[in-house]
Give the backbone structure.
Amino acid sequence: MSKYILDTDHITLFQYNHPKICQRAREIGNASIFVTVVSLEEQLQRRLAIINKVTANTKKPEFLSVAYYKLRATQDFFCNVKLLDFNDAANTYYQNLRQQKVSVGIHDLRIAAIALVNQAVVVTRNKKDLSKVPNLPLENWSL
């Protein structure tokens, strides 16, 4: 049985019920689908940034409740999926990739390290960058 890790972009599409991603997820089954603590970090950072922006914008106070609703929905989502950690093994792999000067964004490289340690396929639309990571299997479920 293969393991599939949804990258942050695919998680967002899944949360908004992208039909092809939802269909593929049903075909694969929940037991084989994972997300990473790195994606949790990215989504929480975005949600908190939006709350801060709305708070600072006194002209749009009605958006504050929506921003908090989305923060809660994000928390609920991550409580109901299988979350893979950025543990010591992933950190070692990540540092190795950085020493090899693999030219990929920090968060993507951390997700790649988690995937490689867990022998998982990264599900992403970002094949352009992630294909630079040696031996990293990739799929795009949005096509």
